[in-house]
Predict the structure.
Amino acid sequence: MYVPYLPETAPFTPEQRAWLNNFFRELALSALRVGSDDQATDTLPFLSGDGQATPAPPAPPRYDRKHPFPAHLLQRRRLTGEGSSKDIRHVIFSLEGSGLSYEVGDALGVYPENDPELVEALLATLGYSGDEPVPGPDGTELPIREALLRHYELGTLSRPLLEAAAPAHEWLPKLLDDREALQRYLAGRDLLDLLREAPTFRPDPALLVGLLRPLAPRLYSISSSPRVHPEAVHLTVGVVRYKAHGRLRKGVCSTFLAERAALEHPVPVFVHTNPGFRLPADPDTPIIMIGAGTGIAPFRAFLEDREATGARGPNWLFFGERNRATDFLYQEELEGWLQRGVLTRLDTAFSRDQAQKCYVQHRMLEQARTLYAWLEKGACVYVCGDATHMARDVEAALLTIIQQEGGRSEEDARAYLANLKKTRRYQRDVY
Ligand SMILES: Cc1cc2nc3c(=O)[nH]c(=O)nc-3n(C[C@H](O)[C@H](O)[C@H](O)COP(=O)(O)OP(=O)(O)OC[C@H]3O[C@@H](n4cnc5c(N)ncnc54)[C@H](O)[C@@H]3O)c2cc1C
Ligand SMILES: NC(=O)c1ccc[n+]([C@@H]2O[C@H](COP(=O)([O-])OP(=O)(O)OC[C@H]3O[C@@H](n4cnc5c(N)ncnc54)[C@H](OP(=O)(O)O)[C@@H]3O)[C@@H](O)[C@H]2O)c1
C-alpha cells in the first residue's frame, strides 16, 4: 500500500513532519477499512497488521499555525490586465480533507519558501557548498541550502547580524548608534547586499544561521465565502517586486505564490481567525465597505456570503486602484452583483486615470450626505488595505462627513466614531 509520506524537502519542522506523517499513515490505514462502500461509517472496524479488528483511528488532527495543513494550490490567475503597473493574483487553495473551517473576515497564513536563485547567490558569495549542516530554528540539523530556502528570512537583517558584520563593513559601525540612519540603510537591503558590502564577513555556516530570523508565515485576507466554496479558500495577492540598490527584489511569499509554488506540491497553511472583522449578526443591517487595492479581498467574501445567505441588508462598496482599464479587480463579479441587486452601490476611484489623484475617500466625500444617512440607519463600516495612508485618510474623511452632515463639532464627531468602534460598527483590517 502506498503511504504518501511527506518528502524530505517539504517545508516543515521535524516535529511537524512526524505529526503529519502520522496523520497520513492513519489516513492510509483507513483505506483498509472493511466494507469500502459509500455506507462505510466511523463505527466500522479497522484491520490491524495481524488482521484483528481495532478501534477506528483518532479524529483528524486540528491544523493551526504550529501544525499547518499541506494545502494544494488549485488555481492562480492574474487579476490585473495586460499593461498594468501592478501584478495582482487570484489564488485558490484546496482545504479538502483538512477539516479546517473559516468565516468571512478571516485570513489565511501561508508558510513560503525563499527564492532558490537568491539562495544560490548567497551560497556562492559565502563560498559554501550548500551541504554544510546547520541547525534549523527548532535546533534540528539540516543542510544550509535547505535552511536558507525554507527556514530563515533573507530579506530582513537582525541587530545581532548587523553587529557581527559591522567590523567588516565600511560605514555600518557608525549607523548602529543612529536609529534613523540605520532605518534608511536597511530599507531595501537584504542579506546578499550586506555580504557584498562586508567582503571579509564570512562566518561559519552555523554561526550565520544563528544570526538570521526564522522565516515567518504571511497572512492574506480570505476573499471567498465558505458557504460558496466549502472546501477551498481564495486569496487576492498583490505581488511585491521592486528595484533597490541595482537589483530586482521579490517579496518572499507573494512571489512564492505567484511564481514558485507548484500545483503538485502542498503549501503549509493555517486559518488565522479575525473576530474583529465580521459581518453584522443581523442580515438586514446595511454595510459600507471601503477598500483600495488588495483591500477588496474580504469584501468579495462578504458579498459572496451576503448573496448566499440571502441577506437583505444593502451593500455599498468603495473600491480604489490605479487604472480602470487594467486594475478593476473582480470587475465582472462586481457588475454581476450590481445587476442582481446584491451590491446596492459601487463607487470606484481610479487614481491614475486623470491628472489629479482620486482616492476612495474623495468618493466618500462626494457622497457625504447619503453615506451619513446610511450611518444614521445603523450601517456598519469596514475598511481594508493600506494601513499607513489609506486607512488614516479614510478615517479623516469619515470624521469630516460626520461633522459636516451631522452638524457636529470635531469632538462630537470623534465621539460618534468612537461609539461606532465600540459597538463594532466600524471595523478595520489594515496592514
Ligand atoms: C491581516 C493581514 C492581511 C493581509 N492581507 C493581504 C491580502 O489580502 N493581499 C495581499 O497581497 N497582502 C496582504 N497582506 C500583506 C501580506 O501578509 C504580505 O505582507 C505581503 O504579501 C508581502 O509579503 P512578501 O513575503 O511577498 O514580501 P516580503 O518579503 O515580506 O517583503 C515585503 C517588504 O518589502 C519592502 N518593500 C515592499 N515594497 C517596497 C518598495 N517598493 N521599496 C522598498 N521596499 C519595499 C517592505 O519593507 C515590505 O515590508 C496582509 C497582511 C496582514 C497582516
Ligand atoms: N507589508 C508588505 O509587505 C506589503 C505588501 C504588499 C502590499 N502592502 C500594502 O498593502 C496595501 C495594499 O497594497 P496594494 O498594492 O494592493 O494597494 P495600494 O498600494 O494601497 O494602492 C491601491 C490604490 O490606493 C491608492 N492610494 C494611495 N494612497 C492612498 C491614500 N492615501 N488613500 C487612499 N488611496 C490611496 C493608490 O493610488 P496611487 O498608487 O495612484 O497613489 C491606488 O489607486 C498597501 O499598504 C501596500 O503597501 C504591504
Remarks:
- The mean pLDDT is 90.
- Residues 107, 155, 187-188, 218-221, 236-238, 240, 242, 244, 251-254, 294, 297, 429, 431 surround flavin-adenine dinucleotide (ligand 1) (CB under 6 Å).
- The first strand starts at residue 46 and ends at 47.
